[in-house]
Structures are given as structure tokens and as C-alpha cells.
Design goal:
about 260 residues; about 80% helix
């Protein structure tokens, strides 16, 4: 109950907005929805599933390398600027994917994946984590739990949306529809979320309690968490993107397969 009393109306607004922002970040939109594109792209271009899913590997590694720099960017300039810039660049990248595939084939697919992994990093979970962890203390776990549920919510919605659009308008329409999520929903969220005053870019970092990045890197807990997240993400994402084509092979319609 004490945790709940710490969260006022403005706090709940920040939590709800952060949850929506996580739901339309690059993880649900570009990673978790890839599975519903595997069969349509294979049919259109003759590519194998391994060739298409390699794009996920490229995107994921690019994002993993970009995230520390994205975090530093947010530390220096605050959350909103990098968040808005990232949403615009990654949304345009998703919208440009059909052009890249039609013009450059697999090279376009891999290049687009590299671009999305890099520019999508600042608008992934990192900015929302900073906002909520800086705003709440006793209720930090509750706030973060709600926000991170956005990955599951987005992972349930984006494949279904993409599959519905692919059935109606082809795979081009699927990418255009997904691009609208960061460019519309994401930008609205970016106007709502607000970094706590004591953590904004103008604050003296020495006055903020906690470890420095160098100190954190020397703790076993940091490396244990890194390994845990790596293993969990590899298992979840590696399996999930192949569920839709596998279920489709078993006779399910694309929209039902997307729910898998």
C-alpha cells in the first residue's frame, strides 16, 4: 500500500505513457513482428527463412552495441530530445523498408535492420527506465513492472496488426502500418513523458546518489544481470519469431498464427 500511495495522478500518467511508449518501441514493432513477414517475404523474393531471420540477428546486435551510447546520449541531453529523434528515424526506417527490399533485396533487408537497431536504441526501454526509476523510490518496482509489460502488450498487438494489414494490403502495407506506431503513438508519448527535474541534463551528476558507470561495471551483479537478460532475450525472441510461420504451416490463418 505504501508503494501505491507514492504514485499520484501525474505518476500514473507517466507510467501509462511509458507503457505505451515501450509497446511501440523497436522491440515489439521490428523484432517481435518479424515472424509474420517471413512467409510473405519468402513467397515474394524466394528467400529462405534463415536468410530472413538473419535480419533479426543483425538488428539485435546493432541495438546491443548502440544501447550504451543511447544511454549516454540521454544522460547528456535528457530524455526527450533523443527519444523524439529516435522515434522519427526508426519510424521512417520501417516505412522505407519496402523500398529497400524492392530496390536492394537481401542487402536492403540487412541494411534496414542495421539502421533500425542503431537509431531505435534511444527510444527503446532505456529512456523510460530512467524516467520511472528517477521518479519513484518505494514504488519503483511497480512502476517498472507496468512499463515493461509494454513489451508483452506490443508483442501481442504488433504481429496481429501486421498480419491483418498483410492480408488486406500485402507485405508493403504491413510495414507501412507498423511505421505509424512510432510516428504517431510514440511521438504523442514523447510529448507526455517528463524526466524528473533532479535527473535532467542540466543537473549536477555528482549530486545524484548512486554508482558511477565505472563502479557499476566492477560489480558481479551487473554482469550477472547482463548474462540473464542475454539468455532470456535469446530464448524468447529466437523462438517467438518462428512461431507465426510454423503455425501457418500447420494450417492456421495468418491472423491466428500471429497470436502464437
Amino acid at each position: 500500500m505504501a508503494a501505491e500511495r507514492e504514485i499520484d495522478l501525474q505518476g500514473w500518467i507517466q507510467i501509462a505513457a511509458s507503457t505505451a511508449g515501450v509497446a511501440v518501441c523497436v522491440i515489439p514493432v521490428s523484432i517481435l513482428s518479424l515472424g509474420v513477414f517471413i512467409k510473405p517475404l519468402g513467397d515474394a523474393f524466394g528467400w529462405g527463412r534463415g536468410e530472413i531471420s538473419l535480419a533479426l540477428t543483425i538488428l539485435s546486435f546493432a541495438m546491443a552495441l548502440a544501447l550504451p551510447f543511447a544511454g549516454r546520449l540521454i544522460d547528456v541531453f535528457g530524455v526527450r530530445g533523443p527519444l523524439v529523434g529516435s522515434l522519427l528515424l526508426y519510424g521512417v526506417g520501417v516505412a522505407a523498408t519496402p523500398f529497400l527490399l524492392d530496390s536492394f533485396g537481401l542487402v536492403g533487408l540487412y541494411g534496414g535492420a542495421l539502421w533500425l537497431g542503431i537509431v531505435g536504441a534511444p527510444s527503446s526501454t532505456v529512456g523510460y527506465v530512467k524516467i520511472l526509476s528517477g521518479r519513484f523510490t518505494r514504488s519503483r518496482g511497480l512502476a517498472m513492472g507496468f512499463a515493461m509489460s509494454g513489451i508483452a502488450v506490443g508483442g501481442a498487438i504488433t504481429p496481429l496488426l501486421a498480419a491483418t494489414l498483410i492480408e488486406a494490403y500485402g507485405w508493403h502495407g504491413g510495414f507501412y502500418g507498423l511505421a505509424a506506431l512510432p510516428l504517431i503513438v510514440g511521438l504523442i508519448v514523447a510529448m507526455i513523458v517528463r524526466e524528473p527535474d533532479h535527473l535532467n541534463a542540466k543537473t549536477d551528476r555528482a549530486a545524484v546518489a548512486g554508482m558511477t558507470s565505472a563502479e557499476a561495471l566492477r560489480t558481479p551483479v551487473f554482469w550477472m544481470m547482463l548474462l540473464l537478460f542475454l539468455v532470456a532475450a535469446t530464448a524468447n525472441h529466437g523462438i517467438q519469431i518462428h512461431l507465426a510461420p510454423l503455425l501457418s504451416d500447420l494450417g492456421l490463418t495468418p491472423d491466428r498464427a500471429a497470436l502464437g
